Amino acid sequence: MHVIPMQVKQLAKALNTTPDTVRYYTRIGLLRPVKDRSNDYKCYSDVDLKRLRFILCARQMEFTVEEIGQLLDFAEKGRQPCPRAAELLQARLEEIQQRLNQTVSLKERLNKALSQWQVQPQKAPTGDMLNELIENFCEA
Asked: N or C: which end of the chain has fewer CB within 10 A?
């Protein structure tokens, strides 16, 4: 393993992230720096650089830290992580689609509430209603 003479701040800068991010992934074991015996600083290898690049990309795709750990574990054991990544991506895509559908539904309810409210006379809350505009359009 070739050790790049990079410490936390240098690795963070190389990948446009924060030192705290590097420290976090080091603390949870996704990055495995070696200690420089001359000064006790953590030094990161080219493997750590590649792993952090992968981690940051996977996080942008909303993989969880646990999922990223699984994918890295697959690769370390010489198994192809791509089929597992494809499964995770499919699940993530389905989650995103569900959130998108919910957001579109919310937008439609908000537009309907606002349209109806704009044509109604303003009145004080009645009975148990605190805010008629919101309560009439809340999903039960």
From this structure: C
